[in-house]
Specification:
By secondary structure, the chain is an alpha+beta fold. It has a domain at 183-307: endopeptidase fold (from Nostoc punctiforme), CATH 3.90.1720.10. It is built from ten helices and ten strands. It has helices spanning 7-11, 29-35, 48-116, 125-129, 142-174, 183-188, 190-193, 199-207, 226-235, 245-251, and strands at residues 132-134, 137-139, 219-220, 223-224, 253-255, 265-268, 274-279, 282-285, 294-297, 303-307. The relative contact order is 0.06.
Length: 310
């Protein structure tokens, strides 16, 4: 009795050469399955972990291949760009140096031409002393200009002297004429020389003339100008001063304002005015035409203090 699906059935050899005389035996289920063609399964699913690992490996391999291709492509490009930049940087200084050298050579050539082709000539001194004119234009000589300036200065001095005399005459008609001693008389007299000098005494004498009208060029109590007033007061103490602000400035000793006392003299730095310092920022002076001797605040800081009698 034969068992279905036994090993003997599976191992019974089939002799293809004797198929005509062989008796066909029925095939078992196992034999039938063994002889059935097997179709390979290519897309069989893999377990989850193994499949993910294989996918990651494939992606990494693809990325590495792409990066390698990019590097092989970019290497020549980078070298080309670097070479171009280096060439640009190197050419610019070389070109600038060439241009500078060319400009210096051209300038040197021009100087050489001017030096070798220069001409010397002399002009007679008489030409500078004579004026000339041509085509409606003229040139005035230096001598003519200097003569014109001298004439203008002389005319101005004459006008000033005439104005002084006119002012004094006008004052004499309005006020009683002064008949007392002049500044020169005081300086020459022995009385003035023996008068004790002190700054308070100077202030007391100067105050006697408050209200005296201003007269340009005035130097006595009929009318004072600024320097004439200072000159007349100090003359009474035997101190001789010129009738001039700049000369009075030179005759005195400049002192700091912190040491100034009433009776010292305020000299404006532009040498245009002076007067007696009265302390606390005040001055006693003969101001200007239309004014009279008075005490008033000093209106500027552009001055210095001068002391006489020391």
């Amino acid at each position: 009795m034969t068992q279905t699906g036994s090993a003997a059935d599976a191992q019974t050899p089939a002799n293809p050469t004797n198929t005509e005389n062989a008796t066909v035996a029925p095939m078992t289920r196992r034999a039938a399955r063994a002889t059935r063609p097997v179709t390979p399964v290519r897309d069989a699913p893999l377990p989850g972990g193994r499949r993910a690992a294989l996918a990651a490996q494939a992606a990494a391999s693809t990325k590495a291949s792409s990066s390698a291709r990019k590097r092989r492509f970019l290497a020549p490009v980078v070298l080309t760009v670097a070479a171009g930049m280096f060439g640009t940087v190197a050419v610019a200084p070389a070109f600038a140096a060439t241009q500078q050298s060319s400009g210096q050579d051209a300038a040197a050539a021009q100087r050489q031409i001017r030096t070798t082709e220069a001409q010397n000539f002399s002009v007679s001194d008489a030409v500078a002393l004579a004026g000339t004119s041509r085509d409606g234009y003229g040139a005035t000589s230096t001598a003519t200009l200097e003569a014109a300036k001298a004439k203008e200065a002389a005319d101005a001095a004459a006008k000033q002297a005439a104005a002084t005399q006119a002012a004094r005459a006008k004052t004499a008609s309005q006020y009683a004429s002064y008949t007392g001693p002049t500044a020169s008389d005081y300086v020459a007299s022995s009385t003035a020389a023996n008068t004790p000098f002190s700054l308070p005494a100077v202030v007391a004498t100067a105050k006697q003339y408050i209200g005296t009208p201003y007269v340009f060029g005035g130097a006595d109590p009929s009318g004072f100008d600024c320097s004439g007033y200072v000159m007349f007061v100090y003359a009474q103490y035997g101190i001789k001063l010129a009738h001039s602000v700049p000369l009075q400035d030179q005759a005195g000793t400049t002192i700091p304002e912190s040491e100034a006392q009433p009776g010292d003299v305020v000299i404006f730095n532009n040498e245009a005015h002076d007067g007696f310092y009265m302390g606390n920022g005040m001055i006693m002076d003969a101001p200007k035409p239309g004014g009279s001797v008075s005490i008033r605040p000093i209106w500027t800081s552009d001055y210095h203090i001068v002391r006489f009698g020391i």
